[in-house]
Amino acid sequence: MSGVEIKQVVSAVDLGEGPHWVENKQCLLFVDIANGNIHRYYPQTNKDQVLHVEEGGSGSSLSFVVPIEGTEDLLIVGLGRSFAVVQWSASDPDQHTVKVKGILHTVEDAYPFNRFNDGKCDPQGRLWAGTMDGVTDHSNADFAMHKSSLYCLDTDLNLTNQVNKVSLSNGLAWSPDRKTFYYIDSLKYSVDAFDYDDVTYKICNRRTVVDYKAAGLENDIPDGMCNDETGNLWVACFSGNKIICIDPKIGKIVRTVELPAKNITSVCWGGADYSTLFVTSAKTYHSAEELATQPAAGCTFAITGLGVKGLPPTNFKADLQVLKNKIASCGM
């Protein structure tokens, strides 16, 4: 594709996910799920810092990371089945380990092997995050279908269940006009849309935007997702070596970008003008033979020259006094 440049910017991790651009620090946050690590990558210096979060709450897997608005160094993360808060200061060593400061909520006690997966804030700063069965092999017959959910944590730390009977909660995005919510349950093999109320955060009228199998992507699994300033959706294709761009107004794939890794996990816009698309990937779920032919598996990529820009991400806009009280009540 003319003018498009794909650059490997962070070396391989086991299961990269949840990229989030931090505007005031001009850096990229993302997680390495199974190892419980948060990465902080600075494009201007090429520095990659790593924060390991010790097991707490309901597990050790670390599935998303979002800065907490109005704080210098607090982050909300998905830790196992819990919403947790951690602190990562700019002065911390490049390789650092912390304990959680507090657990805000834990979900799905009836399904102890579940864990959080993708999480992202809506335009009002409420955090949406969904769960999945935490088994290693998603092809396993024991994978718990329809036993997960999508939740919304509002700014007063109230938690609501927005979608139930989910199998593998994944990509989240909101249209620029804030009237449509896009959602991926990966094992539905589709990108879906809901009507969305930006004030009440109610969603309804679920429908399919793109059916992967009908679109000829029967070997791909829809994963993480973001949108650009035009409202088009950019979707990571796990097991597909690519990302796709969908025009949701017509329900069609309008662009494909091939990548040098098979298991593409998520995407987000970043850079000084939001013209860089950052892409995470995984080297898990590969045989040794496959890894030998895919040295870039698990790397994070930066794609430029796409001719379109993204929108700034939203941080978690928690009521800071409510948050302070909740953390204090945890006694951690």
Automatic annotation (TrEMBL):
The terms describing its cellular component in GO are: cytoplasm
Q: What cofactors does this protein use?
A: Mg(2+); Mn(2+); Ca(2+); Zn(2+)
The record ties this protein, via InterPro entries, to: SGL
Q: Which UniProt keywords apply?
A: Calcium, Cytoplasm, Hydrolase, Metal-binding
Q: Which domain of life is it from?
A: Eukaryota
Its annotated compartments are: Cytoplasm
Task: Name the chemical reaction catalysed here.
Answer: D-glucono-1,5-lactone + H2O = D-gluconate + H(+)
Tell me where the transmembrane regions lie.
none
Q: What family name appears in the similarity comment?
A: Belongs to the SMP-30/CGR1 family.
Q: What is this protein called?
A: Regucalcin
Task: State the gene name recorded for this protein.
Answer: Rgn-L4
